[in-house]
Automatic annotation (TrEMBL):
SUPFAM superfamilies xref list: lambda repressor-like DNA-binding domains
InterPro entries associated with the record: Cro/C1-type_HTH, DUF5753, Lambda_DNA-bd_dom_sf
Annotated protein name in UniProt: Helix-turn-helix transcriptional regulator
PROSITE patterns to which the protein is assigned, alphabetical: HTH_CROC1
Gene3D superfamilies linked to this entry: lambda repressor-like DNA-binding domains
HTH cro/C1-type domain residues: 16-69
Organism listed in the record: Actinomadura alba
Coiled-coil blocks: none
Superkingdom, natural source: Bacteria
Pfam families in the cross-refs: DUF5753, HTH_31
Amino acid sequence: MAGNHLTARAFLAREIRLAREAKGMSRAALGKAVFASESLVTAWEKSRYVPKPDAIDRLEGVLGTRGVLSRLLEDLVSVTVPLEWFGKWVEIEGRATALWSFELAVVPGLLQTEDYARAVLRAANHLADTEEMVIARMNRQRILAKEDAPVLVALMDESVLQRNIGGAAVMHDQLLHLAEVAQRDNVVVQIVPLMATVCSGFLGGFVIANFDGGNDVAYVDNQLSGEVVERAEDVVRLRRMFEIFRADALPQRETIELITRAAEQWKA
């Protein structure tokens, strides 16, 4: 019956609870054994929070589930929430020396304000906790301020400035923030005008991570989940698309002026 269908996240939560009960442990005892609070164990078992991979490893050791929980996390649950939540893309992003991002509909995650990120993540209807994902996204942004920060080239369609994400006040603050960060030495923001003929090639957002002495890796976003792309031929295609799109983009100075004017239009 459709009403009895469990999501992957709820299935993992049930397996944790059943394994704990089979061991005859209380939630408090399990929490103590895996260095977590009783309330967090409760949240895991009620599928409010998904355990991080290190917590899953500790649960496996205490409950003796022999890899079942790890496989559920990797094969089922991880495909239903953003890769940044599980650290896969964050680890790649954190090692990159340069990031080339193209966005068709929203400001890139590394440049989002907290309220804008919350509106985007809430609307995406992910199964993970929205507030925890907002925190994860804000933490990601620290890489732009670290000593060996990567260079970020953020290319966006002009429609990003016009889409109502979170309301007028959120848009106003987000665009002012975007204009401000665009003036950092390691951040380049460029807008592709709506009238540019290259817009006919826009299908979706992606970001390419470049490494000194290593192969580039890309992340391609879609409506259901994201995908890390490592196949050299595919990454080269994405890089070629990025350069073609960028050729029709406004220069940095004109982009900042356009963003500032757009922010004023959102001013309440």
